[in-house]
Design goal:
The structure is a single chain. The protein is mostly helical. It has one domain. Helix content is 66%, strand content 0%. It contains three helices and no strands. α1 packs across α3. The radius of gyration is 17 Å and the shape is elongated.
Length: 83
């Protein structure tokens, strides 16, 4: 197996973050709706951001831990050479 490059790791993290974005958002919405938080307020950080900027901010919030996870899990180099 060849060692991964930083670009490959970032692309993988972006794909995983995008796949987790909607399920994580749905779970968060289910968790905060009983507390009286509207979906609009959740997506826009209480109307501090526009809808698009709020959704991008939430995607970046999901991306950060996925990048950290990818950095630890990705095969950067072979530690045991069999040659």
């Amino acid at each position: 197996m060849q060692p991964a490059t930083v670009t490959q790791a970032v692309v993988t993290a972006v794909i995983v973050a995008t796949m987790l974005y909607f399920p994580a958002g749905a779970l968060l919405l289910v968790a905060v709706t009983p507390l009286g938080v509207s979906p609009q307020a959740l997506a826009t950080f209480g109307s501090r951001l526009g809808l698009f900027a709020g959704l991008v901010a939430w995607w970046l919030i999901v991306l950060v831990p996925v990048l950290v996870y990818t950095a630890f899990v990705y095969p950067w180099a072979d530690k045991h050479d069999s040659s």
